[in-house]
Design brief:
The chain is α/β, with parallel strands linked by helices and 635 residues long. The chain contains 16 helices and 37 strands. It has 5 domains: 12-27 and 182-325, MoaB/Mog-like domain (Molybdenum Cofactor Biosythetic Enzyme, Chain A, 3-Layer(aba) Sandwich), CATH 3.40.980.10; 28-51 and 148-181, Molybdopterin biosynthesis moea protein, domain 2; 56-143, Molybdopterin biosynthesis moea protein, domain 3 (Molybdopterin biosynthesis moeA protein, domain 3); 334-406, MoeA, C-terminal, domain IV (Beta-clip), CATH 2.40.340.10; 410-634, D-Maltodextrin-Binding Protein, domain 2 (3-Layer(aba) Sandwich). It is elongated. The structure holds adenosine monophosphate and magnesium ion. Magnesium ion (MG) binds next to loops.
Length: 635
């Protein structure tokens, strides 16, 4: 038999381009949440319910009217009359009137009329008399409906990998099934020397490692592996196995039989059944790879050496699977460290396994034949083909093994569709913590956020700067963002047309600390001024003023399902929900970043995106860039 030689190795860059060019049809299936672990969510998950769905008690105690307890003290307790009891899970049947109380358990619905729960420990019962020795305020020990998750909130993003926490969220909103990406990956091991783990080892034989390591790798990507077992080194058996796998799966992986040895026939089988896109990549470990297509099914002949097989899997196959399955994140984590020793490299693009000891990098290479090369290493460093020598002390990027998905950027602040768009356009993983503008200012001030989104007006109508000055923030940069139209949101058949109509209707307000709520307060303050009353007097007469929807979308949802008549929020949100919008103001939405992060890659990418034409063009109606967008104010 003729020996095949690798005359023309494909470069790592070209191999990446080639794999990226393979078209994959996204497929989805609906599965039970209990079976969904490690799968990738194929749709945005929006809650159809409030969590909790009713105002509930977080303590064992007595539901009362807070007013009745205001005079209570340890020396002078007050007494209320017990009129019944509400265990968890029951429908509330009671009305708590003045001077009355209902015995309530943790998790039970607050009865009508009551607005606070007194902890059992702060009471004494004598017959039907409950004496209370400490005042409670309105809302104390009550978890309000929707305060965990608001109906209409996007709780999970398309492309997210499902873990126990995600399954917790899915079940909390009542979803029993979830739509996930579906990709089947066939796995074939080849070699006369292979034996299945668990069988006795015979002379000259080794255990099949690749089937199991690749099986796990496929699951880690969120896809479904199908193990076809060990195929002996003969053409017919291999052809049959590959035919079956290519007929049943979306991607086929083989291992072994790809090198230039006489018995290595995988490249020929793939070439005869389909087309060969590459044979041999200029990489170490892993040079003998075949990448082909059989009836449109990507078929990858991985090297037999376990370390090589896994390295090629991680570098070229995992990205293909993740793309096919719609995963939004590439779980690679790269950290910077310095070489603890000098390193020589020869000619090939090397992915050198390394160990990390207190920030210093040491080679952990036992050769590509050893499986413990990878298991004992913490990650690898990439050495380009033209580099022959690296000195101790050279800074290097270490790609860590394992799939810790760390976000690129931690964002805290006011919720905004503009931020979602920045995330989509830059491809960055932005962890958004919707804490309102004031949450954003605090998170920058105490160093926990990388970036804050703020739209906080002060009484003069100036945005953000007055608050920054008042807080005495320094070492920060305010990047002017965009303008947003804010106004009343109502149903189309509503007669509401101007801001003072709020007084006559049920309002769904935003959460305290949100810039949007502050803007409404300013507008209501102006109104109060006209009427010659205080803002407090004004707001206390508004039904629903104390509500606190966490997002614009949740505001719209409350109006759509009739829980409120009017809200205050973005035109874009109203438009998306098909609701009427009456413009009241235009506000400034800015980004606040610590100065030392201004020039890191991620923040730079966001800044560039902010002033790009594509961003301007894709913003929803009611949000627009203007001449100040991208301007920087250093403090
Ligand atoms: P090959 O490309 O078939 O010549 O295989 C290269 C090396 O990898 C040989 O030492 C094989 O014994 C070894 N090898 C091939 N397949 C596996 C496998 N599934 N598990 C462990 N080692 C393997
Ligand atoms: Mg072999």
């Amino acid at each position: 038999m003729q020996r095949k030689e690798f005359r023309e190795l494909t470069s790592v860059e070209d191999a990446r381009i080639l794999v990226n060019g393979i078209g994959m049809q996204p497929k989805t299936i609906s599965i039970l949440i209990e079976n969904s672990i490690d799968h990738i969510i194929a749709e945005d998950i929006v809650s159809r319910v409030d969590v909790p769905s009713f105002n509930k008690s977080v303590m064992d105690g007595y539901a009362v009217r807070a007013e009745d307890t205001y005079q209570a003290s340890e020396t002078n307790s007050c007494t209320v009359k017990l009129i019944g009891s509400v265990p968890a899970g029951c429908q509330d049947r009671f009305f708590v009137g003045d001077g009355e109380a209902v015995d309530i358990s943790t998790g039970a619905p607050i009865p009508q009329g009551a607005d606070a729960v007194v902890m059992i420990e702060q009471t004494k019962q004598q017959g039907n008399d409950i004496s209370i020795d400490r005042p409670v305020h309105i809302g104390e020990n009550i978890m309000r409906a929707g305060s965990d998750i608001m109906r209409g909130e996007r709780v999970l993003r398309k492309g997210t990998r499902i873990g126990s926490r995600e399954i917790g969220v899915l079940s909390a909103i009542g979803k029993r099934e979830v739509l996930v990406g579906s990709v089947m990956v066939g796995i074939i091991s080849t070699g006369d020397e292979l034996i299945q783990p668990g069988e006795p080892l015979e002379p000259g034989k080794i255990y099949d490692t690749n089937s199991y390591a690749l099986n796990a790798g496929v699951i880690e990507c969120g896809a479904t592996p199908v193990i076809y077992g060990i195929i002996r080194d003969n053409d017919l058996d291999m052809e049959e196995a590959i035919d079956t796998a290519a007929g049943e799966c979306d991607i086929v992986l083989t291992s072994g039989s790809t090198s230039a040895g006489a018995g290595d026939i995988m490249y020929r089988v793939i070439g005869e059944k389909g087309i060969t896109l590459a044979h041999g990549i200029n990489i170490k470990p892993g040079k003998p790879v075949v990448i082909g297509l059989i009836d449109g099914v990507p078929t990858i002949g991985l090297p037999g050496n376990p370390t090589s097989a896994l390295t090629i899997f991680n570098e070229f196959v995992a990205p293909l699977i993740r793309r096919a399955i719609g995963a939004s994140t590439d779980p690679k984590t790269v950290i910077t460290a310095v070489l603890g020793t000098s390193i020589r490299s020869q000619g090939r693009h090397q992915l050198l396994p390394v160990g990390l000891v207190r920030g210093k990098v040491y080679p952990a290479d036992k050769g590509s034949g050893a499986i413990t090369t990878l298991a004992d290493a913490d990650g690898f460093i990439e050495i380009r083909p033209e580099i022959e020598y690296m000195d101790a002390g050279t800074p290097v990027g270490v790609t860590l093994f394992g799939d810790v998905t760390r976000p690129d950027v931690l964002f805290v602040g006011g919720s905004c569709p503009g931020i979602d768009l920045l995330e989509d356009l830059t491809g960055l993983r932005i962890r958004v913590i919707g804490a309102g503008s004031s949450g954003g200012f605090s998170a920058i001030s105490n160093g926990t956020a990388d970036i804050a989104g703020v739209n906080m007006p002060d009484a003069s109508g100036e945005y953000n700067m007055p608050i920054i000055k008042r807080m005495g923030l320094s070492g920060v940069v305010l990047i002017k963002g965009y303008r947003r139209e804010q106004g009343l949101i109502t149903r189309h058949d509503s007669e509401i047309s101007k801001i003072w109509d709020i007084l006559e209707h049920r309002l769904i307000n935003r959460n305290r600390g949100s810039g949007t709520r502050a803007l409404l307060d300013i507008k209501l303050g102006e109104l109060a001024g006209e009427k010659g009353i205080s803002l407090r007097e004004m707001t206390s007469s508004i039904t629903g003023y104390d509500s606190g929807a966490k997002t614009h979308r949740a505001v719209c949802d409350a109006i759509m399902n009739g829980r409120a008549d009017v809200g205050f929020g973005l035109r874009s949100a109203a438009g998306e929900a098909g609701l009427k919008f009456i413009k009241v103001a235009e506000e400034e939405y800015d980004l606040l970043v610590p100065k030392h992060l201004l020039d890191i890659g991620e923040i730079r990418a966001l800044r560039e995106c902010l002033v790009s034409e594509e961003f301007a063009g894709r913003l929803p109606a009611g949000i627009f860039v203007y001449e100040d967008s991208g301007k920087r104010i250093e403090l």
